UniProtKB/TrEMBL annotation, chains A, B:
PROSITE patterns: HTH_MERR_2 (PS50937). This is Cu(I)-responsive transcriptional regulator. Residues 6-75 form the HTH merR-type domain. InterPro entries: DNA-bd_dom_put_sf (IPR009061), MerR-type_HTH_dom (IPR000551), MerR_fam (IPR047057), Tscrpt_reg_MerR_DNA-bd (IPR015358).
Length: 139, 139
DNA sequence: CTTGACCCTATAGTGGCTAGAGGGTGCAGC
DNA sequence: GCTGCACCCTCTAGCCACTATAGGGTCAAG
């Protein structure tokens, strides 16, 4: 019979490691439902809100976009459904992340190559500047 | 004595693999100098512009921000100066890239772990949803 | 003299927030 | 009561690096 305690936005922010403005932003874009208000027009959140926001933040920490999170939230509410759709979403996000890693590794090795080519001296002789000035664009 | 040929914005775009709107954007933010205009008010670029834009695009392909590129461009014009500043810029950018790679690798391995934990079935039993709903946020 | 490829400006939108102005609320201490 | 303070409210604008759209003008070929 313990009623879930009501949280003010600052409490919810502290409980989930989210900034207050970010919480209001999530409400504005319809990711977090607008909570009831107190007499003084303060937002009054319940534990349901807290759970949903935690879900969002954990998903964000894994790099999901807000749209992907919207989908995950919808799926998670559809409890009887097969979870293959969740797997697909996670898999395709993982592929994105792996692609991004591969991109960045190409950049990093090119940057290291450039760095090693520099033997000091004036800008005029700098191999880094030379590379940026005349090498072909990366494929 | 061969005068450098004048390029219209579409030619410059084709020559550097840049979109026309992006070229105008670079001009607007002062990264690429505004070229003279023809009678019909078309931008008329010279090879100097083409070289500068190529430099910008190659630097972008290496992940430098436009502000970093602004600095690189300033440095590259200061031909007698010691190139240590260039090295510092490249090194700090490389560190950024490496940090980003490390971040993404953490995400990827967490995503793979979650994916493996899913044994199929309904959403209600899905370990992925469970992990997003109740695991502690990543550190 | 019309077609069509090309060019121009200006404005607004993307994602995921962040910053600031200008004000209201609620509670403790005096 | 009254003041100070932490907290809350809305609204607008800004960040990065573009991208998209509307509503026009230019120019050479057929
Ligand atoms: Zn994704
Ligand atoms: Zn050097
Ligand atoms: Zn950088
Ligand atoms: Zn599952």
């Amino acid at each position: 019979m313990t009623e879930p305690s009501l949280l003010r936005i600052g409490d919810l922010a502290a409980a989930t490691g989210t900034k207050i403005v970010t919480i209001r932003y999530y409400e504005k874009i319809g990711l977090l439902p607008a909570p009831p208000r107190t007499g003084g027009n303060y937002r009054a959140y319940s534990t349901t809100h807290r759970e949903r926001l935690s879900f969002i933040r954990r998903s964000r920490a894994l790099g999901f976009t807000l749209d992907e999170i919207r989908e995950l939230l919808e799926l998670s509410a559809d409890t009887e459904r097969d979870c293959a759709a969740v797997d697909r979403l996670v898999t395709s996000h993982l592929v994105e992340v792996e692609d991004k890693i591969a991109d960045l590794q190409r950049l990093a090795s090119e940057l290291r190559r450039m760095k090693e080519s520099c033997r000091g001296g004036t800008i005029d002789d700098c191999r880094i500047i030379e590379a940026l000035s005349s090498q072909p664009t990366l494929p």
